[in-house]
Amino acid sequence: MEGIIINKLHCTIQIRLAKKNIFFGPGVLKLLKLTGKYESLSAASKSMGMSYSKAYKMIKESEKELGFKLLDRKIGGTNGGGSTLTPECVDFLNLYEKFESETKKNADMMFTKYLNKYI
After folding, report:
1. Non-local CB neighbours of 37 within 8 Å, separated by 6+ positions
2. What is the rounded CA–CA span in Å between residue 74 and residue 89?
3. By CB atoms within 10 Å of each CB, which of 39, 49, 59, 102 scores lowest?
4. Second CATH level (architecture) for the domain 22-118
5. Domain ranges of the chain
6. What are phi and psi of 18, to 5 degrees?
7. By C-alpha distance, which of 64, 86, 62 is closest to 74?
8. Are 79 and 49 in contact (CB under 8 A)?
9. For the segment 7-23, what is each residue's pLDDT rounded down to a tens digit?
10. Are strands 71-74 and 82-85 parallel, antiparallel or unpaired?
11. Contact by Cβ (8 Å): 44, 31
């Protein structure tokens, strides 16, 4: 049965953070990681097929709700602009990913515990 994909029941979980409204989740996480990789919010948003204005709004909303800056921005000039992740952002992303990983692990265990007979 090599190469055949067998569909089996499983669970998927996406972690989102909210106050009054959801402000952080997989999309913002990916945007920030790509911004760190490219050192550019513009390049990150383009690679995701998203407008810069939407990306900027997502980051600003997350910064507002979290209470700290996620990006250090440099305005363009002779050497061009760019964005880098703040130390607070790097710390937050590391903790968020640990929380996400542990939550998914626990969800998998609970799924097996309660729904094992349907797998």
Report:
1. 44
2. 16
3. 49
4. Orthogonal Bundle (1.10)
5. 22-118
6. -145, 155
7. 86
8. no
9. 888 899 999 999 999 99
10. antiparallel
11. yes
Cα-based torsion angle of the residue sequence 76, 79, 81, 83 in order, rounded to the nearest 10 degrees:
-160
CB atoms within 10 A of CB 44: 23
Contact 100, 55 (CB under 8 A): no
Is residue 9 within 8 A of residue 118, CB to CB? The reply is: yes
pLDDT in the model for residue 4: 65
Q: Residue by residue, what is the 3-state secondary structure of 38-89?
A: HCCHHHHHHHCCCCHHHHHHHHHHHHHHHCCCCEEEECCCCCCCEEEECHHH
Q: Residue 5 has what pLDDT?
A: 64
Tens-digit pLDDT profile for residues 27-52: 999 999 999 999 999 999 999 999 99
Q: What is the mean pLDDT of residues 85-92?
A: 98
- The count of residues in the chain is 119
Q: How far is the C-alpha of 90 from the C-alpha of 97, rounded, in Å?
A: 11
- pTM, rounded to two decimals: 0.86
